[in-house]
């Protein structure tokens, strides 16, 4: 019983971590007033970049950092379209979700002899090191270092949002950009920084998949996790701590899919595979009307306009 419980916790933490990074990216972008539904595409580019860099350098940490840079580069496209040119932010995000997988697959085929996936790559270390707790029930709790990084990123974002002046500026820009502008806060610059950080965090989320869970990039590495992360943003009421808790819930759904689909209880695997996505729809139906987004979320700011 203890072994199964610890296994459930370990798998939950492992599968929730990519969602945590993606959700944090959504939180910081939307709290500044820029809707970012392109998290999925940014995670996909980050997943490929992490895997490719880790393969060619043999250093997964370089791959992890490169994934953040690649995600930020894709986010820059969204920032330019949404902030500078005031394009529809939803359409821009959709375009990124369509463009980014194609970019990842194109470079994958160019770099790996026309293959649609990378070879197995060096992965990030486990939290306690290989072989920790061998022979004890706690062996199944040996989680990836990305779990700690995801928790640390959540704490840092919470601190920045609620304990620093810059966090107050972010929240002001997302709620009342005109008022923030009159107080000398640079609205467009703040939004640019937040969108770039959003892409960087999404890139880290993609890297958490290919450098910790599956150890290689494939076309289905992300498979909707960016959209689940956005659902976590809504469920968590656009707060870092709330999004983190929601990601744990979605991660537990994935863990149950693995445990119950693996023969512990006789449940068809096709039904269990639907669980995380069904849960996403249910949560959106139940909570999307009860969660209030930042007032200026998705609204381009035009200086001097009322």
Fraction of residues in β-strands: under 5%
- Gross geometry: globular
Question: How far is the first residue's CA from the last residue's CA?
Answer: 61 Å
- What is the strand tally? 0
Structural class assignment: mainly alpha
What percent of residues adopt helix (DSSP H or I)? over 70%
What are the segments in which pLDDT stays under 50 over at least 5 consecutive residues? none
Helix count? 11
On the 0 to 100 scale, the average pLDDT is 90
Major beta sheet summary: none
Please state the CA-atom Rg, rounded to the nearest Å. 19 Å
Q: Key terms for this structure?
A:
single chain; about 300 residues; mainly alpha
Brief overview:
The protein contains 11 helices and no strands. The protein has 306 residues and is an all-alpha fold.
Describe this protein's structure.
- By secondary structure, this protein is mainly α.
- It has helices spanning 2-31, 39-57, 60-84, 89-111, 145-163, 165-175, 177-182, 187-213, 225-235, 240-264, 269-287.
Q: Secondary-structure blueprint of this entry?
A:
Layout: H1 2-31, H2 39-57, H3 60-84, H4 89-111, H5 145-163, H6 165-175, H7 177-182, H8 187-213, H9 225-235, H10 240-264, H11 269-287
């Amino acid at each position: 019983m203890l072994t199964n419980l610890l296994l459930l916790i370990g798998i939950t933490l492992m599968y929730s971590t990519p969602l945590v990074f993606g959700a944090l990216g959504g939180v910081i972008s939307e709290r500044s007033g820029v809707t970012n539904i392109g998290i999925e595409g940014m995670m996909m580019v980050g997943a490929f970049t992490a895997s490719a860099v880790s393969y060619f350098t043999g250093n997964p940490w370089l791959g992890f950092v490169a994934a953040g840079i690649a995600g930020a580069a894709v986010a820059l496209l969204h920032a330019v379209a949404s902030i500078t040119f005031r394009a529809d932010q939803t359409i821009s995000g959709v375009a990124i979700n369509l463009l980014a997988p194609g970019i990842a697959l194109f470079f994958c085929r160019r770099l790996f002899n026309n293959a649609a996936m990378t070879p197995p790559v060096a992965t990030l270390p486990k939290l306690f090191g290989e072989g920790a707790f061998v022979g004890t029930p706690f062996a199944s709790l040996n989680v990836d270092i990305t779990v700690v990084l995801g928790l640390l990123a959540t704490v840092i974002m919470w601190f920045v949002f609620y304990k620093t002046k810059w966090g107050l500026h972010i929240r002001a820009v997302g709620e009342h950009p005109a008022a923030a502008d009159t107080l000398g806060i640079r609205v467009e610059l703040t939004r640019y920084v937040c969108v770039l950080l959003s892409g960087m965090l999404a890139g880290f989320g993609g890297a958490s998949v290919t450098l910790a869970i599956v150890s290689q990039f494939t076309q289905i590495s992300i498979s909707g996790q960016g959209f689940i992360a956005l659902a976590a943003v809504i469920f968590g009421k656009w707060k870092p701590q709330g999004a983190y808790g929601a990601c744990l819930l979605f991660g537990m759904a994935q863990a149950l899919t693995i445990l119950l689909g693996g023969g512990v209880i006789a449940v068809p695997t096709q039904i269990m595979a639907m669980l995380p996505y069904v849960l996403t729809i249910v949560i959106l139906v139940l909570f999307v009307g009860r969660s209030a987004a930042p007032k200026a979320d998705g609204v381009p700011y035009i200086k001097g306009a009322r």
